[in-house]
Amino acid sequence: MRRPRVAPAPPGVNGRIILSFLVSAAGAIGFAVTYGLGGQTQWEGVCLAVAFAGLAIGLAIWGRRLVPVGGYVEEHEGFPPPPEEQAMVAAVLTAPDSPVRRRGLLAALGLALTALGVAALFPLRSLLPSDRTRPVRAREVTPWGPGVRLLNADGRPLRPGDIPAGSVVTVFPEGGADAGDAPAFAVRLRPERFTRPPSAGHLDGLVVYSLLCTHAGCPVRLYLKGTGRLLCPCHQSSFDLFADAQPVAGPAARRLPGLPIEADADGYLRATGGFTAPPGAGYWSRP
């Protein structure tokens, strides 16, 4: 029996299919690398979109340009098919130029599917207990540290005299003002009214605390002059600055972290360390 002829692939089709599968594999590898380096939601989404798009485009080209389409009518007398037809089908499937025997296409498809499968395993790492402490450690690192100068909103270094009594001044760390956990506030209080000594100390009544509410991370900006109370506008938590910024109302359960400060030889305010506790909203290991 003469072996049936299989129509050759149009020029460039194999290359486009292989390229699509390689792009899919690259997207899957990019997702795995991005996730392994700490994760960034937008880039992870882009990588997954590229991976699935490349796989879909490659399969679409394969099915449209290499697999025969159309209506076929085949006469047969019954099942199983005659030995001649079985031999013909086997000859088509085993032909060197058969669409299902093109090794390059199958290898590229296998690479794309393998890369996607491996990438799908990476998010399972989030369910393991070994990484549960990583976000906690990250929250404890802020731009504040020994020797960091306090700047106002205009980027100007502050001196103790720049903080008038009875007013709250937002301050930022020099060199790290853009960090989300960096904002703090300075306020001058009367030391004799302290009912609890500030955990970070004070400089002649001048204290500095994190600006982020310990409930949901909103900025606490509403200062009730004379009462020493600072209010969060989001959920109405209230902090008593005379009692080391202890919460006295609302859903917040932790006091505002304090920042130890000093005046340097030139009279500028500098931090002598970081916050006394991680700033911002509470998480699973804290109230």
From TrEMBL:
<dbReference type="InterPro" id="IPR017941">
    <property type="entry name" value="Rieske_2Fe-2S"/>
</dbReference>
<feature type="transmembrane region" description="Helical">
    <location>
        <begin position="45"/>
        <end position="63"/>
    </location>
</feature>
<keyword id="KW-0408">Iron</keyword>
<dbReference type="InterPro" id="IPR014349">
    <property type="entry name" value="Rieske_Fe-S_prot"/>
</dbReference>
<keyword id="KW-0812">Transmembrane</keyword>
<comment type="function">
    <text>Iron-sulfur subunit of the cytochrome bc1 complex, an essential component of the respiratory electron transport chain required for ATP synthesis. The bc1 complex catalyzes the oxidation of menaquinol and the reduction of cytochrome c in the respiratory chain. The bc1 complex operates through a Q-cycle mechanism that couples electron transfer to generation of the proton gradient that drives ATP synthesis.</text>
</comment>
<keyword id="KW-0411">Iron-sulfur</keyword>
<feature type="transmembrane region" description="Helical">
    <location>
        <begin position="17"/>
        <end position="38"/>
    </location>
</feature>
<dbReference type="GO" id="GO:0016705">
    <property type="term" value="F:oxidoreductase activity, acting on paired donors, with incorporation or reduction of molecular oxygen"/>
</dbReference>
<keyword id="KW-1015">Disulfide bond</keyword>
<dbReference type="Pfam" id="PF00355">
    <property type="entry name" value="Rieske"/>
</dbReference>
<feature type="domain" description="Rieske">
    <location>
        <begin position="204"/>
        <end position="270"/>
    </location>
</feature>
<dbReference type="InterPro" id="IPR036922">
    <property type="entry name" value="Rieske_2Fe-2S_sf"/>
</dbReference>
<dbReference type="GO" id="GO:0051537">
    <property type="term" value="F:2 iron, 2 sulfur cluster binding"/>
</dbReference>
<keyword id="KW-0479">Metal-binding</keyword>
<keyword id="KW-0001">2Fe-2S</keyword>
<feature type="transmembrane region" description="Helical">
    <location>
        <begin position="105"/>
        <end position="124"/>
    </location>
</feature>
<dbReference type="GO" id="GO:0004497">
    <property type="term" value="F:monooxygenase activity"/>
</dbReference>
<keyword id="KW-1133">Transmembrane helix</keyword>
<keyword id="KW-0472">Membrane</keyword>
<dbReference type="GO" id="GO:0046872">
    <property type="term" value="F:metal ion binding"/>
</dbReference>
<protein>
    <recommendedName>
        <fullName>Cytochrome bc1 complex Rieske iron-sulfur subunit</fullName>
    </recommendedName>
</protein>
